[in-house]
């Protein structure tokens, strides 16, 4: 059975009851539902804990999609822990502080792609920092200027909303896709669009804040030249 991805409907859900579907040969725990984001799109998998009925905790180091069945999510426990049995009722508890930093930086990176309206060739999200790589014909980017424009967008207190379109609708609007290296998550027949007010609209399967006011002040920490036309822009929560 596919794992129910609760984070797609509510990224602020911090815990949920769940049932253990299986434990694979490597000790990975598959649940019927989860609030943990699984690694993808430049965003790392969530960490946290699985709480068993007796109150004992299983520390989860990361979360990934099952390589043999992408519809299922594997919670990867730290080594040396007792594992649950299939059918066991548990509670999934998210490391919220870590996740919220990622939500803030992920939303800020969407805004950065508006400030620098160039094709995106790569990116990653860290603990309160992140980067995007841009295909820019000419260099000469100014950190202070980019930061000023980025923070002006953050300060517009724009609502962040999601809606779904079909694969066919996305194919008919290829300009929605800004990333050259990371393709929108497909396979279910529909694609999730993330809108930031009237500022930005693009397909994305990641987690975001509800309003840009939650991002806070952002600093542009570095702009690197990575090849003839590639520029890597790093940002961090100030």
What does this structure look like?
The structure is a single chain. The chain is α+β, with helices and mostly antiparallel strands. The chain has two domains: 4-94, Elongation Factor Tu (Ef-tu), domain 3; 99-237, Threonyl-tRNA Synthetase, Chain A, domain 2, CATH 3.30.980. The protein is 16% helix and 39% strand. The protein has helices spanning 96-115, 143-154, 167-171, and strands at 4-5, 15-23, 29-31, 33-34, 48-52, 57-66, 69-77, 89-94, 120-125, 129-135, 160-166, 190-196, 200-203, 218-225, 230-237. A six-stranded antiparallel β-barrel has the order 2-3-7-6-5-8. β2 (15-23) and β3 (29-31) form a beta hairpin. α1 crosses α2 (143-154). The longest helix has 20 residues, at 96-115. The relative contact order is 0.17.
How would you sum up this structure in a few lines?
The chain has about 240 residues and is α+β, with helices and mostly antiparallel strands. The protein has three helices and 15 strands. It has two domains: about 5-95, Elongation Factor Tu (Ef-tu), domain 3 (Beta Barrel); about 100-235, Threonyl-trna Synthetase, Chain A, domain 2 (Threonyl-tRNA Synthetase, Chain A, domain 2).
């Amino acid at each position: 059975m596919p794992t129910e991805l609760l984070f797609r409907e509510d990224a602020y859900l911090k815990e949920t009851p769940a049932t253990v579907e299986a434990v694979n040969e490597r000790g990975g725990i598959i649940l019927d539902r989860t609030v943990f984001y699984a690694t993808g799109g430049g965003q790392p998998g969530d960490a946290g804990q699985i709480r068993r009925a007796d109150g004992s905790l299983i520390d989860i180091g990361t979360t990934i999609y099952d390589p043999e069945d992408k519809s299922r999510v594997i919670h990867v426990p730290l080594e040396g822990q007792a594992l649950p049995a299939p059918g066991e009722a548990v509670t999934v508890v998210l490391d919220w502080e870590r996740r919220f930093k990622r939500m803030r930086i992920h939303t800020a990176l969407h805004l950065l792609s508006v400030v620098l309206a160039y094709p995106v060739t790569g990116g990653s999200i860290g603990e309160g920092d992140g980067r995007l790589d841009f295909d820019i014909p000419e260099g000469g980017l100014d950190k202070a200027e980019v930061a000023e424009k980025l923070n002006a967008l953050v300060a517009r207190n724009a609502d962040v909303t999601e809606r779904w379109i079909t694969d066919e609708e996305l194919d008919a609007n290829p300009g929605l896709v800004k990333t050259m290296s990371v393709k929108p998550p497909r396979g279910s027949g529909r694609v999730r669009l993330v809108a930031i007010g009237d500022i930005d609209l693009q397909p994305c399967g990641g987690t975001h804040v509800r309003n840009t006011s939650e991002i806070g002040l952002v600093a542009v920490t570095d702009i690197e030249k990575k090849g003839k036309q590639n520029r890597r822009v790093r940002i961090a929560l100030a």
